[in-house]
Protein backbone atom coordinates (compact mmCIF):
# COMPACT_ATOMS: atom_id res chain seq x y z
CA UNK A 1 0.00 0.00 0.00
CA UNK A 2 1.31 3.43 -0.93
CA UNK A 3 0.00 6.85 -0.08
CA UNK A 4 0.34 10.39 -1.48
CA UNK A 5 -1.02 13.75 -0.41
CA UNK A 6 -2.10 16.40 -2.90
CA UNK A 7 -2.95 20.02 -2.15
CA UNK A 8 -4.79 21.06 -5.33
CA UNK A 9 -6.65 19.43 -8.24
CA UNK A 10 -3.63 20.12 -10.46
CA UNK A 11 -1.45 18.03 -8.14
CA UNK A 12 -3.87 15.10 -8.31
CA UNK A 13 -3.84 15.38 -12.10
CA UNK A 14 -0.07 15.57 -12.13
CA UNK A 15 0.12 12.36 -10.10
CA UNK A 16 -2.27 10.43 -12.35
CA UNK A 17 -0.59 11.84 -15.44
CA UNK A 18 2.67 10.27 -14.22
CA UNK A 19 0.91 7.02 -13.36
CA UNK A 20 -0.36 6.79 -16.95
CA UNK A 21 3.21 6.38 -18.20
CA UNK A 22 3.42 2.93 -16.55
CA UNK A 23 0.13 1.53 -17.85
CA UNK A 24 -0.24 -1.29 -20.35
CA UNK A 25 -3.15 -2.83 -22.28
CA UNK A 26 -5.51 -4.68 -19.94
CA UNK A 27 -4.65 -2.74 -16.80
CA UNK A 28 -7.58 -2.00 -14.50
CA UNK A 29 -7.67 0.82 -11.94
CA UNK A 30 -10.53 1.27 -9.50
CA UNK A 31 -11.34 4.63 -7.92
CA UNK A 32 -13.15 4.87 -4.61
CA UNK A 33 -14.01 7.93 -2.59
CA UNK A 34 -16.99 10.13 -1.77
CA UNK A 35 -18.70 12.41 -4.25
CA UNK A 36 -16.34 15.30 -4.91
CA UNK A 37 -13.26 13.43 -3.70
CA UNK A 38 -11.52 13.79 -7.06
CA UNK A 39 -12.10 10.56 -8.99
CA UNK A 40 -12.97 12.35 -12.21
CA UNK A 41 -10.13 14.85 -11.74
CA UNK A 42 -7.81 11.86 -11.33
CA UNK A 43 -9.14 10.32 -14.56
CA UNK A 44 -8.61 13.59 -16.45
CA UNK A 45 -4.93 13.51 -15.48
CA UNK A 46 -4.67 9.87 -16.49
CA UNK A 47 -6.20 10.68 -19.89
CA UNK A 48 -3.74 13.54 -20.33
CA UNK A 49 -0.87 11.19 -19.49
CA UNK A 50 -2.09 8.75 -22.13
CA UNK A 51 -2.09 11.57 -24.66
CA UNK A 52 -5.86 11.67 -25.04
CA UNK A 53 -7.00 14.86 -26.77
CA UNK A 54 -10.74 14.74 -26.07
CA UNK A 55 -12.36 16.37 -23.10
CA UNK A 56 -12.93 13.82 -20.32
CA UNK A 57 -16.12 14.22 -18.31
CA UNK A 58 -17.88 12.07 -15.75
CA UNK A 59 -19.69 9.27 -17.60
CA UNK A 60 -22.41 8.94 -14.91
CA UNK A 61 -25.29 8.77 -17.40
CA UNK A 62 -23.57 6.64 -20.02
CA UNK A 63 -21.74 4.32 -17.55
CA UNK A 64 -18.79 3.91 -19.90
CA UNK A 65 -17.00 6.25 -22.27
CA UNK A 66 -14.21 5.18 -24.61
CA UNK A 67 -11.36 7.45 -25.64
CA UNK A 68 -9.26 6.32 -28.56
CA UNK A 69 -6.98 9.25 -29.33
CA UNK A 70 -4.15 8.39 -26.93
CA UNK A 71 -1.22 5.99 -26.66
CA UNK A 72 -3.72 3.37 -25.41
CA UNK A 73 -7.52 3.34 -25.46
CA UNK A 74 -9.09 4.46 -22.17
CA UNK A 75 -12.37 2.97 -20.93
CA UNK A 76 -13.74 5.31 -18.30
CA UNK A 77 -16.61 3.82 -16.26
CA UNK A 78 -18.78 5.32 -13.56
CA UNK A 79 -20.90 2.67 -11.84
CA UNK A 80 -22.45 4.97 -9.23
CA UNK A 81 -25.95 3.85 -10.27
CA UNK A 82 -25.11 0.18 -10.87
CA UNK A 83 -25.43 -2.63 -8.36
CA UNK A 84 -23.51 -5.88 -8.10
CA UNK A 85 -26.62 -7.89 -9.10
CA UNK A 86 -26.76 -6.32 -12.55
CA UNK A 87 -24.87 -7.87 -15.46
CA UNK A 88 -24.13 -5.02 -17.83
CA UNK A 89 -21.16 -6.68 -19.52
CA UNK A 90 -18.46 -4.33 -18.25
CA UNK A 91 -15.98 -7.19 -17.82
CA UNK A 92 -15.76 -7.42 -21.62
CA UNK A 93 -13.58 -4.32 -21.50
CA UNK A 94 -10.99 -5.66 -19.05
CA UNK A 95 -9.17 -7.96 -21.46
CA UNK A 96 -9.22 -5.57 -24.39
CA UNK A 97 -6.27 -3.51 -25.55
CA UNK A 98 -7.01 -0.48 -23.39
CA UNK A 99 -6.82 0.72 -19.80
CA UNK A 100 -9.99 0.60 -17.68
CA UNK A 101 -10.72 3.11 -14.92
CA UNK A 102 -13.80 2.51 -12.77
CA UNK A 103 -15.31 5.16 -10.53
CA UNK A 104 -17.39 3.70 -7.63
CA UNK A 105 -15.95 0.22 -8.30
CA UNK A 106 -16.95 -0.80 -4.75
CA UNK A 107 -20.53 -1.06 -6.12
CA UNK A 108 -19.61 -4.02 -8.36
CA UNK A 109 -17.13 -6.19 -6.38
CA UNK A 110 -18.09 -9.46 -8.13
CA UNK A 111 -17.29 -8.11 -11.59
CA UNK A 112 -13.80 -6.79 -10.90
CA UNK A 113 -10.68 -8.63 -12.07
CA UNK A 114 -8.50 -10.09 -9.28
CA UNK A 115 -5.45 -8.13 -10.38
CA UNK A 116 -6.30 -4.44 -10.16
CA UNK A 117 -4.87 -1.28 -8.66
CA UNK A 118 -7.37 -0.04 -6.06
CA UNK A 119 -7.09 3.70 -5.59
CA UNK A 120 -8.88 5.49 -2.78
CA UNK A 121 -9.12 9.27 -2.67
CA UNK A 122 -10.08 10.89 0.61
CA UNK A 123 -10.97 14.51 1.19
CA UNK A 124 -8.91 15.96 4.04
CA UNK A 125 -10.15 19.51 3.57
CA UNK A 126 -11.19 21.88 0.77
CA UNK A 127 -8.05 21.29 -1.32
CA UNK A 128 -6.15 18.49 0.35
CA UNK A 129 -6.58 14.83 -0.60
CA UNK A 130 -4.92 11.56 0.32
CA UNK A 131 -4.47 9.08 -2.51
CA UNK A 132 -3.93 5.47 -1.47
CA UNK A 133 -2.92 2.79 -3.98
CA UNK A 134 -3.37 -0.88 -3.11
CA UNK A 135 -2.31 -3.70 -5.42
CA UNK A 136 -3.96 -7.13 -5.56
CA UNK A 137 -1.90 -9.06 -8.08
CA UNK A 138 1.46 -9.19 -9.80
CA UNK A 139 0.67 -6.65 -12.49
CA UNK A 140 -0.87 -4.06 -10.12
CA UNK A 141 2.02 -4.61 -7.69
CA UNK A 142 4.41 -3.76 -10.47
CA UNK A 143 2.55 -0.55 -11.34
CA UNK A 144 2.49 0.39 -7.65
CA UNK A 145 6.25 -0.09 -7.41
CA UNK A 146 6.87 1.98 -10.52
CA UNK A 147 4.80 4.94 -9.39
CA UNK A 148 6.38 4.76 -5.92
CA UNK A 149 9.86 4.90 -7.42
CA UNK A 150 8.95 7.74 -9.76
CA UNK A 151 10.43 10.90 -8.32
CA UNK A 152 8.38 13.08 -10.63
CA UNK A 153 5.07 11.70 -9.33
CA UNK A 154 5.16 13.88 -6.23
CA UNK A 155 6.70 17.01 -7.77
P1 LIG B 1 -15.62 12.72 -7.95
O1 LIG B 1 -15.45 12.25 -9.36
O2 LIG B 1 -14.82 11.94 -6.96
O3 LIG B 1 -17.06 12.84 -7.53
P2 LIG B 1 -14.60 15.21 -9.01
O4 LIG B 1 -13.28 14.82 -9.54
O5 LIG B 1 -15.70 15.38 -9.98
O6 LIG B 1 -15.03 14.20 -7.84
O7 LIG B 1 -14.50 16.57 -8.21
C1 LIG B 1 -13.46 16.84 -7.28
C2 LIG B 1 -13.62 18.30 -6.85
O8 LIG B 1 -12.70 18.60 -5.81
C3 LIG B 1 -13.33 19.25 -8.00
O9 LIG B 1 -14.19 20.34 -7.93
C4 LIG B 1 -11.88 19.68 -7.70
O10 LIG B 1 -11.60 20.99 -8.21
C5 LIG B 1 -11.88 19.68 -6.18
N1 LIG B 1 -10.54 19.50 -5.57
C6 LIG B 1 -9.99 20.32 -4.64
N2 LIG B 1 -8.80 19.89 -4.25
C7 LIG B 1 -8.53 18.76 -4.97
C8 LIG B 1 -7.44 17.85 -5.00
N3 LIG B 1 -6.34 17.99 -4.21
N4 LIG B 1 -7.52 16.80 -5.85
C9 LIG B 1 -8.62 16.62 -6.62
N5 LIG B 1 -9.69 17.44 -6.63
C10 LIG B 1 -9.67 18.50 -5.81
MG1 LIG C 1 -16.82 11.50 -10.80
TrEMBL record:
Sequence segments annotated as region (Disordered): 135-155
Biased composition (Basic and acidic residues): 142-155
Subcellular location: Cytoplasm
Pfam families attached to this UniProt entry: TsaE
Keywords assigned: ATP-binding, Cytoplasm, Magnesium, Metal-binding, Nucleotide-binding, tRNA processing
UniProt-listed InterPro entries: P-loop_NTPase (IPR027417), T6A_TsaE (IPR003442)
Family to which this protein belongs: Belongs to the TsaE family.
PANTHER family assigned to the protein according to its UniProt record, in alphabetical order: TRNA THREONYLCARBAMOYLADENOSINE BIOSYNTHESIS PROTEIN TSAE
NCBIfam families: T6A_YjeE
Protein name: tRNA threonylcarbamoyladenosine biosynthesis protein TsaE
Organism of provenance: Sporolactobacillus shoreicorticis
Amino acid sequence: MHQWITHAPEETMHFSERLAVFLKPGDVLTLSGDLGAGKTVFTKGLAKGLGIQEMVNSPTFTIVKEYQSGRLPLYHMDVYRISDEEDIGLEDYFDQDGVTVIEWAENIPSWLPDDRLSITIERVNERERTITCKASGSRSKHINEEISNDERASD
